[in-house]
């Protein structure tokens, strides 16, 4: 159950309104998480800027797979519904690929290395081993790509933590609990 009521559009701070309106136009509706997050223009606009920048890194399948893996580790049910939806509809991942990503893997070898590395970053709080770094490099990722993977882990963790704290009502199709996949 949500801990905070979703604000109405009239309650959105003026400094968040342009960013929120942009998301609403692109998505077709205002997700509950965004309506809540927009209550802090500083945090919301900073997150939106990071999201915009990181949407230009790697490829959409890898980004969505990392989002699924990180959200699974962080136990964020809201983000799992969002990332499962976007992975299916935007990244065009099949259902079995979405499950693999939630488990920290992918059928594509290069993407698998990135997703495994992202999962290791979140599980170890960034204290990965030399072997973890070498494995992602050996898969063809540059040091800049490794930095982008770490930034994606941090960005997804931010929304995971936000949603775990505020627990907004789910407005994307439900997904199976982790124990059943």
UniProtKB/TrEMBL annotation:
InterPro entries: AhpD-like, AhpD_core, CMD-like, Uncharacterised_peroxidase-rel. Keywords: Oxidoreductase, Peroxidase. Residues 1-20 are annotated as: Disordered. GO terms for molecular function: peroxidase activity. It comes from the Bacteria. The keyword Isomerase does not apply. Residues 43-119 form the Carboxymuconolactone decarboxylase-like domain. PANTHER family: CMD DOMAIN-CONTAINING PROTEIN, SI:CH211-175M2.5. This is Peroxidase-related enzyme. The lineage of its organism: Bacteria, Pseudomonadati, Pseudomonadota, Alphaproteobacteria, Caulobacterales.
């Amino acid at each position: 159950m949500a801990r905070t009521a979703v604000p109405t559009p009239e309650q959105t701070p003026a400094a968040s309104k342009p960013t929120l309106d942009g998301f609403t136009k692109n998505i077709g509706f205002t997700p509950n998480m965004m309506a809540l997050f927009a209550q802090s223009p500083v945090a919301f606009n900073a997150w939106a800027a990071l999201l915009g920048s990181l949407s230009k890194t790697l490829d959409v399948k890898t980004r969505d797979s990392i989002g699924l893996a990180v959200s699974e580790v962080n136990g964020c049910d809201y983000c799992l519904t969002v990332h499962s939806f976007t992975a299916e509809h935007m990244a065009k991942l099949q259902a079995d690929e979405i499950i693999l990503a939630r488990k920290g893997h992918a059928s594509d070898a290069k993407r698998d290395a990135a997703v495994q590395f992202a999962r290791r970053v979140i599980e170890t709080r960034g204290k990965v081993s030399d072997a973890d770094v070498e494995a992602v490099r050996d898969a063809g990722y540059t040091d800049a790509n490794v930095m982008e993977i770490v930034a994606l882990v941090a960005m997804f963790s931010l929304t995971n933590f936000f949603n775990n704290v505020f627990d907004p009502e789910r407005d994307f199709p439900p997904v199976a609990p982790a124990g059943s996949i």
